[in-house]
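Predict structure. Chain length: 240.
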Amino acid sequence: MTTAVRVSGSQALQSGHQVNNGTWRMKVVIADDHVIFRQGLRLALEAIQAGSEFFEAGDFETLLRLVTRQRDLGLLILDLNMPGLSRSTGIATLRGHVAPAPILVLSASDDSEDVFASLASGASGYVHKSAGMDVLTEAIRTVGLGGVYVPRDLVTGVRPPPPNARGATAEGPRLTPRQADVLRLAAEGHANKEIAFRLGMGEGTVKAHLSLVMRELGVHNRVQLLREVERLKAGGWMPG
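Prediction complete.
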């Protein structure tokens, strides 16, 4: 089962985003070069997103023309391997055209580097193409509310062992070196923007790291996180 990172935000729903009985009504662009996949996804979303308008693009040039015309988009679902899309600048370029609408990457890549690079470039979420419609629907709702959606499996690369009651192993939380760096700076009181600057990453990536750390520690907000770090430090554990 896929476990996802959800970083909730307070961003209000943008104009054209209405929720009625759990369904979204908005303009959605599906950008993927595989016609059968793209049209199949559209049909599936049309069945559950009653009232939404859907647009399709099969290459980056077509996509740019489309998002330039449609200024009130609600969501862009993007394949990383679309022809003409530069992985280093493509998402950032699109971000400038579609903001404040979120970009949700739907990719066949399970490389954690692709996940974090997408977030750092301005994507609000990342879903693997093997995921079910329930996962995609949850991802759409999460990013639409200003959150970040990332399947934990794609970030860690391996599924961690079951945590104890406090969300960490007996030896302390199982963190990657980058997660430990983010936690150390957060524990020192630095804001996400400053952490991002110091570590050379995007704020979205910092949020994703912190959400994974919070889940690992079994806490739900920054205050609880800092208290848990102090408890762990008292027991001899130090982040980073």
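Summary: The domain at 4-156 is CATH 3.40.50.2300 (Rossmann fold).
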